[in-house]
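User: Fold this one for me? It's FadR family transcriptional regulator.
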Amino acid sequence: MRKDDVRDLRVVTNLRTSHAKVVEKLGLAIVGGRFGIGEPLPGDNELESELDVSRSVLREAMKTLAAKGLVVAKSRVGTRVTERCHWNLIDEDVLRWHFTSGVTREFIDHLYDIRMVLEPASAAFAALRATPEDCVELRHYANLLGSNELDWPSQVEADLRFHVLLTIAGANPFLESMVGFIKASLDGAFTMAFDPDLAGRGEAITELHLAIVDALEKRDPEAARVATGRAIQQGRAAALKAVDTSSNKG
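Assistant: Here's what I get for FadR family transcriptional regulator.
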């Protein structure tokens, strides 16, 4: 992703093609448990009728799901759902399907553990490589967080753009390849059905993110690493609270 693309990031994923829609429906059905681990998927004729698609679109969708590790096709056996250990959890779609289907505290903890590995390191690189223009834009997004003038989705998108730009500013191609994972993590964690007031937004979240920008401007990698870790841990607490709130409502 280019830096210019960050400004257009949105929370909602638009599915425009038949292929994307079929992958979405089947992916959600698998992750959500409609098709159990090890179970065969319905035959082509049944799925074509249910999804109202052609055989070619269905087969391409199956190839996509196989590439994500969710299914495996074998001759004389058919297409079966693989064990979860084979699922590509860092895939943007697979991660989003988990959030849509419902996640546990354990899932959130594991997710934020990985964010704690990746993003503070990326911020440290950004402290060495971010441009003045990057810092200006990051400060702009930080100041939007918790704004009383923005609705909840707009605050989420500001947070999303901040963390994606921070990763790109680190200019490490391997970390940049994780942008989709980071985006899906933020999309899911911040758009779960819970009261934004419970998430600790407002001045606290703005100050946490401004501390990251301050560290970048000072070219201080360690300060950037620590500040980013604090912001992620705050996000972990908010996401866990959202899971608990959702469970209590259920």
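One thing worth pointing out: The chain has two domains: 18-86, 104-249.
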